[in-house]
Amino acid sequence: MRDVMHLEQLEQAEALFKPQRIEVLRRLAEPHTCGEVAEQLGQTPQRVYYHVKRLVEAGLVTQVDERKVRGVHEGIYQATARSYWLSPRLVGRIGGLRRTQDELSLGYLLDLMEEVQTDIAALDRTAPELPSIGVSGEIRVPPDQRREFFQDLRSTLQDLFERYGGSEGDAFKLAVACYPKGDQDHD
Would you say domain 2-85 falls under CATH 3.40.630.30? Predict the structure, then answer.
């Protein structure tokens, strides 16, 4: 079982859009038969099998074993991952044409975040070492100093790219996002 599965196909997302299937998927964090899950949920085995079949078709559940009970073959199923990430590309973007440079920048940030999410989902979490760093913080910049702040940020990043941008060594992706915080409460 993987830690994270990145969902990029519409069929996979649609398989999760039913609360009953999400509950079945949760129960399949450990291997179970449809009958066992049905008993836990107070449903019929046929109803649970219908949902499991859709989850298997979407690649979200796999049959890990099979046993014979009273002459009937019974599948044992398990979720393929502990958690699932839905690609923002599947959701789409709401709104009309971008009208200002700020809106274009925000569109780029959405694309960048999707790219980072895809890259992280593709990492081999079983690797003995995954050198990475995540930093987040809030900076308050007076309106009359915004231009200077952005120039300082650009200059600092450019210095890093020039200093470590050679062709030798391990490749790392650096993504920096700077955006206005949603709640603009001023003290």
Answer: no
* Annotated domain spans of the chain: 2-85
Q: Which phi and psi angles does 96 have, rounded to 5°?
A: -95, -150
pLDDT for 51-72, tens place per residue? Answer: 999 999 999 999 999 998 888 8
Q: What is the pLDDT of residues 85-122, one digit of tens each?
A: 777 666 554 343 334 445 456 667 777 787 788 788 78
Q: Which residue has the tokens 């001023």?
A: 186
What is the residue whose two structure tokens read 């009970």?
69
0.90 exceeded by the pTM?
A: no
Output the DSSP codes for the chain.
-EEEEEE-SHHHHHHHSSHHHHHHHHHTTS-EEHHHHHHHHT--HHHHHHHHHHHHHTTSEEEEEEEEETTEEEEEEEESEEEEEE-HHHH---SS---SHHHHHHHHHHHHHHHHHHHHHTS-TTSS--------------GGGHHHHHHHHHHHHHHHHHHH-SSSS------------S-----
